[in-house]
Amino acid sequence: MQRLCIVCKGSRLLCGQKTCPLLAALKQKTKFAELRDKKEFFGPSTSVFVGRIGYPRVSVGPMTVLEAAESDITIGRLEDPGEWFAHGLGMEEIIELRSFTLRSKRGEDIKSRSNFVADMAEIALAKQPVDVELTFKSKPSFNLSFSDVTRPTGASVNVEKMHVTENPKIPKKVDRIVSDELRAVEATEWLYDLGLDVYKVAVILSSGALGLRSAKKMVPTRWSITATDDVIFKKLAAQIREYPPVDSFYVYESSYMDNHFQILLMPSLFEYENFEAWLPGSVWNNDALALSQRPVIVEEHEGFKGRKRYAAEEGGGYYAVRLAVAEALHTMRRQAGVVVFREIYPQYFIPLGVWVVREAVRAAFRNRGEKFNTKKEALDFIDSQLQAKTGLKLRIQDFEVQSAILRQRRLTDF
Amino acid sequence: MFEAKIDANILKGCIESITAIVDEGKLRIAEDGLKLRAVDPANVAMVSFELQSDAFDDFRFVPKGAEPEAVPEAEPTTEPQVSEATEIGMDFRKLLDILGIGGREEVELELDEHAQKLFTRMGSLAYTISLLDSSSLRKEPKVPELEFPAQVIIETEEFRRTIRAAEKIGDHIALGIDGELFYMEAEGEMDKLRLGLRKEQLIHLTPGTLHSLYSLDYITAMSKGMAHAENITLNLGKDYPLQMEFEVAEGKGKVTYLLAPRIESE
Predict the structure, then answer these.
(1) Into which CATH architecture does domain B150-259 fall?
(2) Mean of the per-residue pLDDT values for chain B?
């Protein structure tokens, strides 16, 4: 993103978009200017953010909505990627939406039990946005920030104090889980079982509300998202490993914001492989100056027993996709050998967070899958659906050569 | 009825050769000893394991139904079913953990088939393992009918050292024979590793030309399972499964691994 954007500054549309997605968000800057000279702020807090830099002493604080006057719909939507997907919001709209957010920051140890941290936990647990009063320590700065894992944030400010001006509404069942002497992993599972989506569970986990009384601590937002994906996956996987395998080969497909997914299920015990094919110009393969550009394909996989090492080649995306796959298998009451083929096109050039892939894969399984009798037929179909059409057409063979699962023969083949 | 005593270290080595492939399985107990055959969940690797009864310091097995007290006199109509072996569902990981705690002593085993428990005792430490329901375990696999054109016998340490080095380079390894040379080759994005051993550097070699590729994940696990064996016998083919045989329990037991190859990329 940066290199291109620095050259273009929204004026020349070098990225090939019709309008500059950043400019839409930068419009907020004018509204934001009114805040500039204020020392105090009053408005609804929708979530909390825990930084990771300087761990274990990190910047933490509530996320508030910059423009309190903005409609309730905006506020309600701010933290709900499922909703963004359902309404088909595009990159520009999401960046604009998230540019309403003000991230407040105060240095705290992750094990801190200060009132500030206690208030944060309440905000995280609350069902609805909670009104807060903030006293600024510095001038707010408008600095849209993007990450491959977390959702974009708008402005940020150092805060001195926070005063919660209303009683946060915490659902009774949530309160009971949090008050119980449960380990963070168990509490995370229970919250998900209650029907909270992973987005909310991750916020609660990051807020420091979970864990044995003696071990409660905040978790950096970025880590809490992948940790939640991992914990919930492991819980579902334990059940999935007992289910019968799917009866045939299936391919599920979906597309969102220039991320195209094809998911292959094969009749075998559970194993999982995730491919990411970054086409030239997409977020992590965007050296605009290199002319000999090739798609970059990365691969991570795990066997029936699961993995021990972090999937460093793919990071949070690996875990987000894996969770969505597990949710689908669990609903089908089936297990399968799973290979995910993700193509990322140049139009996806600003990272918006792993929710993008999680929601896209969830959506793929809401569609009807295509059924095939043989692996070859399924792979031929996937090949025909690969969308990279330019001179750099991807073929299924490009994935197969890197595949641990597709290239491994079975003893039953002999 | 099954009761036995065995050196804890010997048993540990045996169980490690099994857990290299599977965590649990059906262990067959018969008069001549213990047997197991199991495949990993992905159907890629198989282990066949045999431990003779004379590997034990003490080994007593009476088949179910053959025990006099097991014949219920009140129901004379039921024919006592005498089977020659007993099958138990075993969590080998758990057994290994327990042996790890016990140390080098002798371990006593006693099966309570009725209660589906295995009692283990090491010195003053007693541990009862609940058996797994056999019906929940996967069926014993069929051994594919294979004919191997070539055989290599190599010192285990040489083989294991090469595997350890290859792990640092890539995720697969090639095993092959080129004339009178046996080689193992791993290639990563940057580095390459090759072990080449001529016939006279090996214990045995069938000359030929062949080559197969295998996943290092599996071979690494297997190479840990063979740590106690002095030599291993490799049976090889072209794009063909790899069979590895070695002895355990000072020659009174035998383990055979079978590993499906990977498809070569061209």
Answers:
(1) Box (3.70)
(2) 90
